[in-house]
Amino acid sequence: MNREEARKKATELVDQMTIEEMASQLRFDAPAIERLGVPEYNWWNECLHGSARNGTATVFPQAIGLGATFDPELMQEIGDCISTEIRARYNEAVKHEDRDIYKGLTVWSPNVNLFRDPRWGRGQETYGEDPVLISTLAVPFIKGLQGNGQHLKTAACAKHFAVHSGPEALRHHFDAKASMKDLWETYLPAFEACVKDAQVESVMGAYNRTNGEPCCAHGYLMQEVLRTRWNFQGHFVSDCWAIQDFHQNHKITDTPEKSAQLALEKGCDLNCGCTYQKIVDAYQEGLVPKENIRRAAIHLFTTRYLLGMFEETEYDSIPFEEVDSRAHRALASRAARESIVLLKNDGILPLDRQKIHTIGVIGPNANSRRALIGNYHGTSSGYITVLDGVEIAAGEEIRVLYAQGSDKIKDRVESLARPNDRISEAQTVAEHSDVVILCLGLDETLEGEEGDAGNAYASGDKMDLRLPKPQEVLLEKVLETGTPTVVCMMSGSAMDLRLSDEKAAAVLQTWYPGGRGGLDVARILFGEECPSGKLPVTFYRDLEGMPEFTDYSMQGRTYRFLDREPLYPFGYGLGYGKPRIVSLQTAEHSTLLSQEGELTLVVEAVNQGSMPAEEVLQIYVHVDGTPDEVRNPKLAAFARITLQPGEQKKTQIRIPQKAFCVVNEKGETVREGTGAHIYAGFGQPDERTALLTGTKSSGLTVQF
Prior knowledge:
The protein is α/β, with parallel strands linked by helices. Helices cover 29% and strands 17% of the residues. The chain contains 21 helices and 23 strands. The strands form seven sheets. A six-stranded mixed beta sheet has the order 9-14-13-12-10-11, sandwiched between helices. The chain has a four-stranded antiparallel beta sheet with strand order 18-17-22-23, with no helix packed on it. A three-stranded parallel beta sheet has the order 3-5-8. Helix 3 (63-69) packs across helix 13. It is globular and about 80 Å long.
């Protein structure tokens, strides 16, 4: 069913409704209209990294880990897998007349906000800090979710529109100030790609204000940008209870009725919350015209018709057996392996089975299910922690010792014990081991969304980049034993890894690797798989020089604007191979950029190592001769490649026109400057990446 047909049917249906009936359908928990054959429907569902909060599902790595894959094809496969499971569950729920929350076909994912500050607890829900990376991964994920059939398989949602990334504690009354340059250069590109390239069915507004206007009633963003410039045809939904903030916190209205009036007027079709329960009152007071209610209802029922809710669809036969199937688990395992980033390796990895007799697995995240799943997760039918995974991978020949070492955040594990009550056990395990796997980090109780995370002191955000104190003590004491130690950092954000970088034998950033992700960590440790993840965010040394969390200017933030050396740069990640760039040239055999502004690079690479190399070939561009270019070379394109030992191959990569443009102070994307430097490598063309990888990017210059 195309949109025109769906809209026609939606219009015919809505025009049979009373004002009260229309208004009732603008709530996330829309009641049935029995006389018209409309069943009740709850619009609220989540699938950030798998079907969430609705029982058993395949639990993929957290979104930030998916960002580390740099793999668009994988993202589409994951999106398709998730929508298959959601349809399978929906088919069964409808049979049982179960129309509860988290069981519908409208999924409020992905989160395409930019991870601009490492303190933000919800940064784990994003794909990272770069607009090109976010866009390139979000588009295929949405396409996978929505499918390519006659009907939408599920209806995806790009959130939170548009300038939103903490602090969590302030989100209900905060005004994010963004220049037109930052808006169009950084905050809007991912949303534009979701609308124009993926035809995302819905967009969700943020809690905060942007430049004075609430994001769920923002004339410029919702009307001029979204509807007019981008020709968005789907429906707009508020974040949950965000419209209530208009009168309670933002103080831009003084009654729920006026908040409903403003949101409807600006184009918010669906209210996650309770304010739209006042629409009928607002209508009776003359605040809300019937046409605004009707328009919103038509938008919503157009989506329901596109989903095939009132007729048979090609997805009705998807069986329940597709949920958490072996094939889906295999895909989650692949995603986990591609997401894990090797940050340091002094040669200890992969572990040599011939030299290791005893492995010590230590740390509060070593045997933690919570450390696998991140936030907004489903329920895995089975969990494999890192401890489980190491025991499986080690086999019968290698002894595995375990010590929790510390609580994640409390100063003791046992309430009646003295502080640091598990330290001596950890030291003993380390001293009796040939190598230690030390699993530290956070989980959804320590970083996440305001109201969900348990760290009430920061409302889900981090105060700084340091580990909780008990874990800092544990790290120091284990390293002091002198046993070679592999630090596995399990977190959804950048942590302070300076001590680990200095003294550990190896460092892995595993993120939250999914329900069975501990086995995938172990497979990489033992060399059964090669690490290939790349950092989707910058790992700063500390917060020195970092702008205030509340400052939404991009200066000094993310790799594109960074004016100091990071510990680990965006795009960085080691492997077990030794890839090198052999040659770089344009497919056009010209260094003069055409008027169309597109260019195809031919990059030749070789693996000089003795193990396979799974790599991400990265292209960066810096436009010359204009003050409007960002400070540092910016990611323009990337491609995953595999090189066997000694293998040499050529890869073609297209650089889009936009990479050679800049955004001026008015927010206009323009072609300026005299030319551009282009860099090809396996990370950024910066000195820190060159030092860490032992290789420099290749470059060439094109003229405009």
